[in-house]
Amino acid sequence: MSFKNQKGRESMITIKSPREIDEMAKSGAILAGMHRGLREIIKPGMSSWEIEEFARNYIESHDAICEQIGFEGYEYATCVSVNDEICHGFPRKNLILKDGDLIKVDTVVNYHGAMSDSCWSYVVGKSTPEIDRLMEVTKKALYLGIDQAQVGNRIGDIGAAIQKYTEEENGYGDVRDFIGHGIGPTMHESPNVPHYGVAGKGLRLREGMTITIEPMINTGTYEITMDDPSGWVARTADGGLSCQFEHTIVITKDGPKILTSQDPEMDAKYLWKPAE
């Protein structure tokens, strides 16, 4: 679940033990399995509420908790954001998906106290070249950010890599108002992880830190508007499309490791190996 950027908000950062990371990896495997399942069911004519039902049933059937439910009054297991909705869209029974819709499904899994957080983007039915390019750039931006999550690097290195690629090289808008964050043992922790910034600046990364990297990239401006009266749903200010991909990762001496991978073959160099 995306974190609202609150400048100056920092608290104690928790360093995870290998045992704790193993548990977070189990949580992440459940979340990844949910996203793989969504690939098979998302189609034109279904409601976004059916995504909510699938996700909730999948998570609970794997002995885990939908951590978003009740968070600051949020009522749903998922955020299902469509087209110009950047994040925190409500799943709705009356929102019927159609060909060419770009949807983002974001949720947090609590497995016996271990947290994982991942958002993935999907096209409903037939895609378009505009959507394909936006999704390709956003996913690559995620991995460029992950590659910078090295022991001794700084938070600004992550954001600078994402911003350079998305804005300078591709002309997209890189959202500032919602950012990544530390995670575990609660949903949102320090440090803040913006997807923009200056290389070499910010907090130094340490082994055992667990964070989310979750760029939200728009076809036009990075600026947003907030839906009233809910105060939850963020949209692009110009009505353009928005895309998001997110992984929970751990920083190790051997480089960043993804705890929410959906594709072990693609993510081979990033996979966490549990202790023997």
From TrEMBL:
Where are the membrane-spanning stretches?
none
How is this protein annotated for GO cellular component? cytosol
EC number annotated for this UniProt entry: 3.4.11.18
Where substrate binds, per the record, is at 88, 188
Q: Which Pfam families match?
A: Peptidase_M24
- Catalytic reactions on record: Release of N-terminal amino acids, preferentially methionine, from peptides and arylamides
UniProt xrefs under SUPFAM superfamilies? Creatinase/aminopeptidase
Q: Which InterPro entries match?
A: Creatinase/aminopeptidase-like (IPR036005), Pept_M24 (IPR000994), Pept_M24_MAP (IPR001714), Pept_M24A_MAP1 (IPR002467)
Instruction: Provide the cofactor list for this protein.
Output: Co(2+); Zn(2+); Mn(2+); Fe(2+)
Similarity comment: family membership? Belongs to the peptidase M24A family. Methionine aminopeptidase type 1 subfamily.
Instruction: State the name under which the record lists this protein.
Output: Methionine aminopeptidase
**Species, as recorded:** Ligilactobacillus equi DPC 6820
What broad taxonomic lineage does this protein's source fall under?
Bacteria, Bacillati, Bacillota, Bacilli, Lactobacillales
What is this protein's gene name?
A: map
